[in-house]
Amino acid sequence: MRKPPPPHHPIHLRPNDRIVFLGDSITEQQLYTNYTEAYLVSRYPELNLTFFNAGWGGDTAAGGVKRLERDVLFCKPTLVTICFGMNDGLYRKLTDTIRTEFAASMREMVFRLRSAGVRVVLLTPGFADENVDNNLRAVKYNRVTLRALADEVLELAKRESIPAFDLHALMTDVDRRARMAKSGIKLTAEGIHPTPGGHLVMAFGLLQALGVAPHSHEVELDYRTATVTASKGIVAKVVRNERDVRISVRMPTLPFFVEEAARAVLPFVPFEEMYNNLRVRVTGSTSKACSLRTMGLAHLTGLTKKRLAAGINVLSLSGVATPVSMPDSTKVFNRTNEKTQVYYKLWRVIALDTPSSIDAPYYDRAGHALAVRTSEHIDRVRAKVIAAAARDVNIILADGSLQPGELDNGDFITSWSLAGPFPNPVDADHLGGEAAFSASPPKLDKRWLRRSIDTSNLTDCLTGIFGVREFCTCYAVTTLESPIDQSCELLVGSDDGVAVWLNGELLESRLQVPRGLTPDSDRMPARLRKGNNVLLLKISQYNGGWGFCARFGGLLRSVKIQN
Length: 563
Prior knowledge:
Blueprint: E1 18-23, H1 25-28, H2 32-43, E2 50-55, H3 61-66, H4 68-72, E3 79-83, H5 96-115, E4 119-123, H6 134-138, H7 141-160, E5 164-165, H8 167-180, H9 196-209, E6 216-222, E7 227-230, E8 235-240, E9 244-250, H10 260-263, H11 271-275, E10 277-283, E11 290-294, E12 298-303, H12 305-310, E13 312-313, H13 327-351, H14 365-387, E14 392-399, E15 406-407, E16 415-423, H15 434-437, E17 449-452, H16 461-466, E18 472-482, E19 486-495, E20 498-502, E21 505-510, E22 522-528, E23 531-541, E24 547-553, E25 559-561
Parallel strand pairs: 1-2, 1-3, 3-4, 4-5, 6-10
Antiparallel strand pairs: 6-7, 8-9, 9-14, 10-13, 11-12, 11-14, 15-25, 16-17, 16-18, 18-23, 18-25, 19-22, 19-24, 20-21, 20-23
Helix pairs in contact: 2-9, 2-13, 5-7, 7-8, 8-9, 13-14
């Protein structure tokens, strides 16, 4: 049997590459670098890439030359990305000296790295917001100084045949279009250091510089016949129910997690369109308006036949990219952040002992070697997380829309009646018979508060209602109407412990468990009867965060909240 062709890899990346991000405080922020790293290891796990961040606040290209051996070559890189220039302009009017010294230092860095057999990718300096700083505006720092230094980088890249990307032009254009749209988006926090959105624009530029090809997949559904076709590498299955069609899509790689702080800039940079795209097209719908639901959180209603036929990128929908709906992608993102911080502390705080000074008088090579080995180990652990990660995207298409209060698979139950807090012990019964209380729809007295749970802050949703509490419990009850008898799965998460009753039956009791909230950490088989069903939860609190969440999976028909 012939082996399948290898996947298309970025032009400038090779298997087992060791990549160092070199730059100033913008690189040290660990944002555009972490976005890039998390994306590359998620999409190309077979390349076995290793990363190190060598950003240093206040540094210049001359400083990069000075610490090249200690902070970069020590890591035995095969590829180094370089991003300097913001500080090289000295925040003053451009002079020939500023320009020539910057160009000379960039040439020296490139020469020394290539002499050591290291490949180089160049980024121009980024964007300085002259609108928020009078000095930047007075000296035309973005329009003149950074543009001139960016041109020096591009000229060097052309002369030496080195891949490069003009971040300055991209970020300036994104800022212009965002202002024209009156979006309120800021690419920098104070004129110099990018916001998370600004860093996402930088990550897009770096992926371009590395030669990363677009990553787009399509699934086309004929709603009438419930048949599906998918682009190469996608496995799609369809199940038709009485009122909807459900598609389960197995992605070839893990979808990328774009954190909420960076998402506002997405309309102005084609990051997800090019690099994180699962487009679903639907034909054959007989309804004037369909609804589309995915991952249990995103819900679009009123979709016309024209909109469905044009296709919807389900990975870009509001509510999709959350730690709850993309737990494995979030793990990879968080592991990348944690690894970078661990390396920073071992390298800068332990190995150098003077984290604020480039000219550190103390340097412990053994400590730096420990930082490198630790980072490599975390990379290997992260690779195992990626290998075991779920790559499924579940989509529900229905003629019409769910009615208010109606819940389907994956929808969090947000409408509850709450009572408490009650003092410990956690196993004390404050309802005069908890099982009996949940056996039929209860009559609630004044102790019970009807509340809607905020799914954007599940970890502290009870703190928001009851205030900061320690060593106590509370109850949450809701009544759900099912149109049929149906077996399903109940998914619960809690901070701290929880006990669960459904229609008078105790399904779970883990009250004496101090823990943080992980959605769906407690999974239990459940059976809903036709008509009303009572779900009762008891949540314990030790200290710190206090919250809970619950939802159903495997429903044959949606249920309706009766509270």
